[in-house]
UniProtKB/TrEMBL annotation:
Annotated region (Disordered), positions in chain: 363-392
All residue ranges annotated as the PIN domain in the record: 170-277
Ranges of Basic residues composition bias in the record: 380-392
Name used for this protein in its record: PIN/TRAM domain-containing protein
Source lineage: Bacteria, Bacillati, Bacillota, Bacilli, Lactobacillales
């Protein structure tokens, strides 16, 4: 028997067991309503239990498929939740059921089927659901409440270790782009990142999908991301953990990252400008590698000389584009005439954009030519004035 049939047979057995108890408890009342006395061949404890089990087993044949699909959805949903979600949800549900039992105990003394059976069941469902919701929606507050730990100072006295500061986030969640970029490995080696790197499974699956792409460029990028992840785990410079859960109700990986960051109180590490803006709008902290690189780039001032190599034409007429070693774009006036040549330029201005820093410059020899022309013009005008004076 395969797994599907085993699960369905188990559901049918549960139905039959429930019918067994309900038949033994309530069928005598039904027979009395029809005027039949007890202790007949069809109205006794055994026959009533068998009839109840048979009726519910027949019902299970109609509804077992629905219950099986419901159980599958519940299992899938629970496996995608974090351990903290399941733990606090279970504890709070148990507490809610205990309260329901305490409230229902006096009701059993009332001689009424409604107060003896129906009301306690309703109370248990209601308090169990309220307890589960209270435990799962407020799990961050519960975690902070139970995060007090007892320590001892140098004098051996017990002290209280308060919860971690709100500005500290233990988990640094890596997205797909930051692993493909590869600079996270160099940044981790410097020791500036602390805590634990958290790599969700859905990010790993996206990397695998890119690495298996038919496009050679995407395939190289995906494999690079997998290599960087393996290097981080093998060298063990900083703890790296995998998040096994997923969010089936969310299709986009970026939205899943934001949801995960809120649940684990983590920080998303990325180099994606658009994702950066979305994360900030969602009030989740983000570490942008590009913003860090721009902040660490050396400053340039107008009049400073740079040695650059013009690699392509600019968007405007006669402009050329060069790049510094750190990737900063340099727009050179008349640079199109010096493609693939090293050129000494003078910085005229620099601006900071959302995409990075941009420098404007012009060739250094153009200023020399202008100065020489100006000097020559001044000398000629001086000679003309002297000649006019002599003539007069």
């Amino acid at each position: 028997m395969n797994k599907f049939n085993k699960k369905r047979a188990f559901i049918q057995g549960i139905f039959a067991f429930i019918g067994l108890g309900l038949g033994a408890a309530y069928l005598p009342l039904m027979w009395q309503g029809f005027g039949y006395s007890t202790r007949t061949w069809f109205n006794n404890e055994i026959s009533n239990a068998i009839i109840g089990a048979l009726v519910f087993w027949l019902l299970s044949l109609l509804f077992s498929g629905y219950f099986e699909r419901l159980i599958n959805r519940i299992e899938k949903s629970l496996t995608s939740k974090s351990p903290a979600y399941l733990f606090f949800g279970s504890i709070s549900t148990i507490v809610g059921l205990v309260f329901a039992i305490l409230i229902s105990t006096p009701l059993y003394r009332i001689n009424s089927p409604i107060f003896n059976s129906v009301v306690p069941i309703i109370l248990m469902i209601l308090f169990g659901w309220l307890g589960f919701r209270l435990g799962t929606t407020k799990r961050d507050e519960w975690r902070k409440l139970f995060s007090f730990r007892s320590k001892k100072n140098d004098d051996g006295e017990s002290i209280i270790d308060r919860p971690i500061d709100e500005n500290y986030h233990h988990y640094k969640i890596l997205d797909t782009n930051i692993l493909i970029d590869g600079r996270i490995y160099d940044l981790v080696k410097t020791g500036f990142i602390e805590g634990t790197l958290l790599v969700p499974n859905f990010v790993l699956y996206e990397l695998q999908y890119i690495a298996d792409s038919s496009d050679s460029i995407k395939r190289v990028r995906g494999r690079r991301g997998l290599d960087i992840l393996n290097k981080l785990r093998e060298e063990n410079i900083i703890p790296v953990e995998m998040y096994e859960g997923d969010y089936d109700d969310i299709s986009e990986v970026d939205s899943k990252l934001i949801r995960l960051a809120k649940e684990v109180n983590g920080v998303i590490v990325t180099n994606d400008y658009n994702l950066n803006k979305v994360i900030e709008f969602q009030k989740v902290q983000v570490l942008n590698i590009n913003a860090l690189a721009n902040a660490l780039k050396p400053r340039v001032i107008p009049g400073e000389h740079l040695d650059v190599m013009v690699v392509k034409n600019g968007t405007e007429r006669q402009q050329g584009v060069a790049y510094l070693d750190d990737g900063t774009m340099v727009v050179v006036e008349d640079g199109r005439y010096y493609l693939n040549e090293h050129l000494d330029v003078i910085v005229t201005s620099a601006i900071q954009t959302d995409a990075g820093r941009m420098i404007f410059a012009k060739p250094a020899h153009s200023t020399h030519e202008i100065n020489e022309k100006d000097d020559g013009a001044k000398k000629n005008s001086g000679k003309q004035k002297n000649n006019q004076k002599k003539a007069n």
